[in-house]
Structure formats: C-alpha cells, structure tokens
Design a protein that fits this description.
The structure is a single chain. The longest helix has 17 residues. By secondary structure, this protein is of the alpha/beta class. It has a seven-stranded mixed beta sheet, sandwiched between helices. Strands 7-6-8-11-12 form a five-stranded parallel beta sheet, sandwiched between helices. The protein has a four-stranded antiparallel beta sheet with strand order 21-22-24-25. The model has no long low-confidence stretch (mean pLDDT about 95). About 30% of the residues lie in helices and about 25% in strands. The relative contact order is 0.10. Among the domains are: about 140 residues, Rossmann fold (3-Layer(aba) Sandwich); about 120 residues, 2-Layer Sandwich (GMP Synthetase, Chain A, domain 3), CATH 3.30.300.30. It binds adenosine-5'-monophosphate-propyl ester (PRX). The site of adenosine-5'-monophosphate-propyl ester has 22 residues, from helix 11, strand 20, strand 24 and strand 25.
Amino acid sequence: MSYPYQIKSLSEYQEAYKRSVQQPENFWADIANNFYWRRRWDKVLEWNFKEPKIEWFKGAKLNITENCLDRHLETLGNRPAIIWEPNDPEEYHRIITYKDLHLKVCQFANVLKNNGVKKGDRVCIYMGMIPELAISVLACARIGAIHSVIFGGFSAQSIADRLQDARAEYVITCDGAYRGQKDIPLKSVIDDALIACPFVKRVIVSTRTRTAVSMIKGRDVWWEDEIKKIETLGMKDCPAEEMDAEDPLFILYTSGSTGKPKGVVHTCGGYMVYTNYSFVNVFQYQPGDIHFCTADIGWITGHSYIVYGPLSAGATTLLFEGVPTWPDAGRFWQIVDKYSVNILYTAPTAIRSLMGFGLGPLQGKSLSSLKVLGTVGEPINEEAWHWYDEQVGKKKSPIVDTWWQTETGGILISNLAGVTPAKPAHATLPLPGVQPVLVDENGKEIEGNNVSGNLCIKFPWPGILRTTYGDHERCRTNYFATYENMYFTGDGALRDEDGNYRITGRVDDVLNVSGHRIGTAEVENAINMHAGVVESAVVGYPHDIKGQGIYAYVVYTGSHGGDEELARRDITATVSRIIGPIAKPDKIQFVTGLPKTRSGKIMRRILRKVAENELENLGDTSTLLDPSVVDEIKKGKL
Ligand code: PRX
C-alpha cells in the first residue's frame, strides 16, 4: 500500500499545513479520495460550533471494515494484520493475516446477526486484550452496530451505568482475562452489572481463562458454540452494511469535570480518514513495519492506533495481552526483539515505571529494529523523555509526543517522526487541518509566541466528536459553550518562541492518573457512597510514576474503633466497587471540615496546594467561612 498523502519533509509539512487552513475542503477531499467509498460525498464539510453541528463527507456511503480488510485482501491478504502476544511469554503467540482477519470478522458478524443484533444497536464489549476483542469491534462495524468498549478495569457499577446510558442490549465478554499475575473474572463482573440491566438480551462469552462462570439460560451463549452454528448454517461471507459517513461508529465513555462519564460519539467517515491520516504521518509508517501500541483497546488510543488507523493503512499491528512488568520489567523489550518491532507507542507512566527498574531489564536486548518511539496520554517529563531517547531509542529513533483526547478521535498536536523537529516534553506543532489557539479566561485569543493559556481549536477536523450519546446539550455545554465558536480541550498549554506547544495539563477538575482520565466529582461521589462519610473533596497531586495521584480529604463520622487505616481501606474498597480499581485514592486524609466560602463552595485551590505540599502560599483565605479548618488540614497533611 502506498500513502500519497504521507508528508516527507518539513517544507512539505508547511505546505500541507498552509493548504489545510486555506482550503480545508479540498485538502481533506484529496486525502479522502484514497479510501474506498461506495458512494462519494455531496459536500466535504458542513459545520457550526454553536449547536454544534459537524458533518464531514456528507452523503458519502462506506463501511470502515471494507477499508480495513476487504480492500487489502488482494495485495496484503497473506500479510499479518494482527500479531498477538499473550500475557505469558511461554504461551504460543498468534499471527492473524488480513485474510484470516477478514474471515473471522465476517464469521463473528454473522454470529451477531444470528443473535439479533441490527444496524444502529449498541453492543457493549468488555474483554481482555485478545484478538477476539479486535474481531468484536470490527464485526460490529461490519454490520453497522455501534460498539462501546469498556476497559477491563471498570467495576460492575460503572458498566451498568454505561449500559443504561447507551441502552445496550448486547454484551460481548470473556470468561476472564490475564494481566500479569492476575486473573480477572470478567464474566462475573458482567453478571453483577446485569442485575441492574434487565434489558440486556444476549451475552456472548469468549473463552480465555476457562475460569468457572455461570451461564444464564436464554441470555448467555459461548462464542465458540455460536461460531459452530454459523458454520452449520453455511454462513461464510458477511457483506458489509452500507453506512452513511455520519452514522455513528462507536461510543466511548470518558470522564468530565461533572457528573457521570459521557459517551463520546465518533462517526464512520471522518474518523476513518483522520485516524489513518494521523497514523501514516505521525509515525511515518512504511509498508512492512511492525507497529506496537501498548494501550488497551478499552481506551481511545487502542481504538485509533491498534485497530482502525493501522488496519485501514494495511499495517501490521501488535496486540499485547499483558503488562510491562511481568514476568519482569524487560517484557516490552523482549517483545520488541521477538517481532523486530519498528514503532513503539506507549505512555509516559509506563516509561517512568520501567525507568525505576534501572538498566538491568534492557541488558541483552538489541532493540535495533526500533525506528520510531511515541508517547501519549499525559505530559512527559524531560527526564523520562531522555531515558526513552537514550536507553530505548539509542538516540537514533525520533520520539513523537502526541497530544490528543478521546473527543478528538486522533492525534492533533505532535511532531511527525523524523520529518518535523522534536523537542523534549513538547507535543510541538499541530497536524495539518488542526488550528489550535490559546485563549485567556474571557475567551480572548492570546496571539504571538512565548505565551500560555487555555487550549482551544477553532476549526473542525474530520475526527472531532459529533455528540455525547443521548445528550447533545451536554456536548455543547462541555466543549463548545465555554468559548464562543471554539472547541475547548480542558487543557492548558504554553507556546514557545518557535510556535511549539507544550501541554501543561488539565485546567478543569479532571485528573490524569497513569494516563487514565478520572473526574474528581466521580471519585467524590463514590467516596460519599460510603455510609460513614459525610462529605469529601478530591484533588490531584504530583506523583513520580503515575504523573498525578489522587488525594482525598474526607469528613468521616463512621465508626472504625479508632483504626483509621481500616476506615481508609473501607473507603478505598467502596471506590473500587463503584468506579473500579483505577480510581482508588492514593491518600486519604480525615478532616473535620472542608474549606468553604460563605456561599458553600469548596475552595479546591487550597486543598490542591496542601496536597502539593505548598503549605506556605495558600493565597487569600479571607473569604472562607471558617479559616481555622485550613490549619487543621495543613497539620494533618499526609
Ligand atoms: O490532558 C491531556 C492528556 O490526556 C487528556 C485526554 O485524555 P483521554 O481522553 O483519556 O485520551 C488520552 C489518549 C489520547 C488530555 O486532555 N494528554 C494526552 N496526550 C498528552 C496529554 N498531555 C500531555 N501531553 C500529551 N502528549
């Protein structure tokens, strides 16, 4: 496969950028022409950020799986589409060619149909990182069902909330999942979730750990049995459903600063074009390269850069079931050598955690196949950047620091590997088609360089979210109402003297813990569910490995027999049950009151400063209802 839209030099980047701003429609139409459409679009772009209404390639018909699978069959049919590396290095890996993947997706798409799934139905997928997860995602897309993947670290309660919000009547899961030494009983978590979701008609269970599961008659079926049925029925091929460019492709839930997670909706046409374009350009993918993105498919990174971006480009994508530190902290490096990985895309948290193991795990590893390194999900500190560059990339592999979000569908700000300059800890320049601006609190654009402000985007790109599922108004207020005619990212950023962006982190009440997005309000709600808790306030604090840790201040009246540790454990268990282990507080400080203004608003600024250990300069506390609580909070700092 060739990529005529792959940018090869800095001047080509500058030209492409200029054209993307001056003639966005022609620019994107030229790129979109490289895909397989059943019908061409009537109009490239129609938009306003007021409602918002954003439509790309309107009138076009396609199926994304024909672009990810069918169109490669003739030329790449016997090439590996997915390389699957199991959790346990002793277990045999799997290589799935484009032909195999096409067959498996068609088979499972028929299973879905045979179980009553129709175009537009929502299907929740809760699985470990096995090929069947990618197959499930693509099978949904094949028949036009809307997938909603839920990360395996979420609790039954979180799953139930999402199932209810999406009104998903179908679930695909596994008996269990392996992650390092752990064996996570996914089906049993689903069973707990479904107590609150009687509308779920069918659960399809794939076998992985063969742990004991309770299969409920009339509702639960085994994946393998269903495939056999399809074979008996003689159903082999599965023609792809014809989709409108603007039909939803998937929903992915993500946290905001208020309320429950929202279902970000991406659509078929624009998302396909944007993930492919950004994949090919940022990573400078060359035919035959092995691309290893270590994210989980439960997050947007896995959707865009394990599944849709690479497969639509005919690439070989590596799917890893396990964790970076098991059986030892050399696991990533061993995988890189085993498959001669060319592109490694991971999170700063993983890099920092591996740095902590020293150079031992790298000894005896060649890593000579690596050409491009990438990071995503959180700001990378310079120390980790240099370690990655020197110890992993041997100073010969460009690092791309890719900034983007669940809502953006694909990478918006990043250097292009080896093509545009990298700068440690900077995401650098916007991709063509992306028009970032920095604004002050009043929404006034801050022009020039060497400035900082809130990061907004003032023009749509094909991968932008279209709505939040079932609640368009929420989409408007969250992203398009803070500043007029702009998409507000929730991030703060600096722009240096050369126009490079450095993302400094969230400016709203959203935490980024190990690259996972968690709303402080969500954690507070979970803590407050505990019978002994009166109220709580949650803030982030700098954490050496996770980037940010969760610090909770809790007003507690429950009895714990004087054992504070026990109360902490109970609260932690509550959060784990309500949201999932990823949202467990790192520190819980018991307080008798929270610093509030006379109007009852919690002054988080003070709590943040204490958690960050900045005890001296707490700023103006004169508006507090009871300034004495601040002294107590300072004294009790953990
Ligand atoms: O704060 C930014 C941070 O992650 C947030 C988006 O989180 P999520 O939707 O879960 O998507 C993560 C993977 C795309 C952003 O608002 N973030 C993401 N990438 C970077 C980053 N912060 C700094 N540098 C990055 N490269």
